[in-house]
Design brief:
The chain is an all-alpha fold. The chain is built from 4 helices and no strands. The longest helix has 21 residues.
Length: 99
């Protein structure tokens, strides 16, 4: 019985020492929360999100619909969106899409 208790204490102490490092967080992406929020807002403005699960990457129709919805929800940014989005879809496809 004493042996079992000693074994249980040893296992518990090892578990605590290794388990405490399991919850340590590391910032491996290198992006701050503000940068992620800015990227998400840019993707919304470009019409890339939201996209249904069965339409990924989003089709041109989905992107156009999302841009219209964004322009309605953010009327002050509509003019900036039209000038910024005139060059293309903003990353979908990219330079390698024509290959």
């Amino acid at each position: 019985m004493k042996r079992f208790i000693a074994l249980a204490v040893a296992v518990a102490s090892l578990g605590l020492s290794f388990g405490s490092t399991a919850f340590a967080q590391s910032n491996s992406s290198g992006l701050t929360r503000a940068e992620v929020v800015a990227q998400l807002q840019q993707a919304q403005a470009e019409g890339l999100v939201p996209a249904p699960k069965d339409d990924y990457p989003p089709s041109e129709a989905t992107i156009a619909r999302n841009r219209e919805i964004y322009a309605i929800q953010h009327p002050g940014e509509a003019a900036a969106l039209k000038t910024a989005g005139a060059g293309g879809v903003g990353g979908v496809g990219g330079a390698g899409a024509s290959n």
